[in-house]
Amino acid sequence: MTVYYTLTFMLLASEMFTFLVLVAPLPHSLRKKLFRFLSESPAVAKVAYGLKITFIFVGVLFIDALQRMFRVTAEADLARSQNSGAQDVRSETNFAARKFYSQRNTYLTGFCLFLSLVLTRTFYIMLDLIHSQEEYAKLKQEMQKSSSGDQTKQIEELKRKLRESEEKVKDFDIVKKQAAQNAKEYDRLSEEFNKKTGSISDKRKD
Fold it and tell me: With contact defined as beta carbons under 8 Å apart, do 37 and 44 qualify?
């Protein structure tokens, strides 16, 4: 395998490893730090830019390998039709090897390009998922704060009503005591009045 196809294979292996890391069941805090680093790091941005240029060359290799595969397949079919009576083992082996290598290069470059698209889409989907989880956590905290604030207001309102009720009870007790004292005083005065008027009415009867 030539050098550029060897590099393509190494790139495909690195893509497979990165994909497994992205979809691995990591803890939420660790995954959040990882995706924040990948999305905000300048070094990762430069590497991503270099990979985009690399994938352009991989696309060119894919087109070239695809053309070679079609050409080798056509040549093998043509040779098989011309030598239908007496087949040359050496030529058949040569065409089979060329066909195998062309198909291998086509699949290698094709899967590398396909996995790059899958990897990019998976990365952005996971990033959106993390942002959605953060927004959900914020909304949940705000809901809890608002509900706790409403409960605090209700508690303060109940305390205020309780203080007002206690003050009314105290005022009622004071009024009750004053009424009792007035009643006693009235009874005392009425008894004194009755005593005095009773003695006067006895004298008048005599």
Answer: yes
| C-alpha to C-alpha distance for 204 and 193, rounded to whole angstroms | 17
Provide the domain count of the chain: 1
Q: Distances from the Cα of 121 to the Cαs of 39, 117, 190, 191, in angstroms?
A: 13, 6, 101, 103
**Could you tell me if residue 191 is inside a domain?**
no
C-alpha distances out from residue 169 to 79, 128, 173, 175, Å: 114, 61, 6, 10
86-110 tens-digit pLDDT = 556 676 777 778 888 888 888 888 8
Rounded to an integer, what distance in angstroms lies between the CA atom of residue 133 and that of residue 130?
A: 5
Instruction: Judge whether 76 lies within some domain.
Output: yes
Residue 112 identity? C
Token pair belonging to 180: 């009792």
User: Helix or strand or coil: residue 96?
Assistant: helix
Instruction: Classify residue 106: in a domain, yes or no.
Output: yes
**Model confidence over 12-67: pLDDT tens digits?**
898 889 888 888 887 878 888 888 888 888 888 888 888 888 889 888 988 988 88
Per the CB < 8 A criterion, the answer to whether 14 and 58 are in contact is: no
